[in-house]
Design goal:
This protein has 296 residues and is of the alpha/beta class. The chain contains eleven helices and eleven strands.
Length: 296
């Protein structure tokens, strides 16, 4: 059953002419006639009477006509409804690693909700490995991550913004009173790290390994969130490398101190990761627009 054939039938009746129907539907008259013949073959009888005065419906055609109108109207209404859903609402599920999910994403999702008040927005926060797994398994629509991304088929990876990982210590720590330290001063200090699979941990360990000091450090504790590490550092349980984006308020409040390390800096990109979708959701497009507008 072809909608176009039914559309030719309805238009020909409404305008009383196959020629006029063909013009309005941007096809040749012979094509329009083939559509009508296909319908008559499908329904098993003549639908239109052709005469010098124009077109008239046969008994079969008269019975079919209201159903054709209903079918085409339902199709057009469905297209309109889906178009509105894509542009005005619907749902979006965003996965983010902890630093992004806790400190950057809520404001951006608030912007999406202001643009689409009827939208259903879901956010999942996990480490890099778990967020990427969710994306591959279609549990989320887009991923925002801070870890190292291996090449994965069917995933599109774009850098979003730069972030710096800085060394944090408590107010009473010996480093808090120093302008800067040498990298070697980290040896013997209790280092606090995020859990395995964390993007922050991956980048930190890669930078320390490249500097040739990782194997000499004392890993005192592994914790599952940025806030847990900041609390532990504040209580003097160790020092840690964390995102500057996630620590700015703590520096301003005097709870934590940023420690400068001479000739050593850890920077990383935060990434947007998407599946290669044939039809991208309107909400995803608007989310990405807001993301790239808020890079500073």
């Amino acid at each position: 059953m072809h909608l176009e054939s039914h559309r030719v039938f309805r238009t020909a009746i409404e305008y009383g002419s196959i020629t006029k129907a063909a013009q309005l539907l941007h096809m040749t008259q012979s094509t329009a006639s083939r559509h009508l013949q296909a319908l008559e073959d499908e329904y098993g009888g003549l639908l239109l009477e052709r005469s010098a005065t124009g077109l008239s419906l046969t008994t079969l055609g008269r019975t079919l006509y209201p159903y054709v109108c209903d079918m085409l109207n339902c199709h057009d209404n469905a297209k309109d409804a889906l178009s509105r859903l894509r542009s005005e609402g619907g749902g979006i599920s965003v996965g983010a690693t902890l630093t992004i999910g806790e400190y950057l994403l809520p404001e951006i999702l608030g912007g999406v909700l202001r643009m689409h008040p009827q939208a259903e927005i879901r956010m999942r926060i996990a480490n890099t490995a778990d967020v990427l797994d969710d994306l591959v398994r279609h549990r989320i629509d887009v991923a925002l991550i801070e870890g190292l991304v291996d090449s994965v088929n069917d995933l599109k990876v774009d850098p979003w913004r730069e972030d710096e990982l800085v060394l944090l210590c408590g107010r009473e720590h010996v480093f808090a009173q120093r302008e800067s330290i040498q990298l070697e001063d980290l040896v013997g200090q209790p280092i606090l790290l995020r859990e395995e699979g964390s993007g922050t941990r991956q980048v930190t360990e890669a930078a320390l390994e490249e500097a040739g000091i990782l194997s000499s450090l004392t890993i005192a504790m592994e914790l599952g969130s940025t806030e847990a590490i900041k609390s532990a550092v504040e209580q003097g349980l160790g020092i840690a490398f964390l995102s500057k984006l996630a620590s700015t308020r703590d520096f301003q409040a005097g709870r934590l101190k940023e420690v400068s390390i001479q000739d050593f800096r850890i920077s990383r990109f935060l990434y947007v990761v998407e599946r290669q979708e044939r039809y991208e959701k309107y909400l995803v497009k608007d989310l990405l627009t807001l993301l790239y507008q808020r890079q500073v």
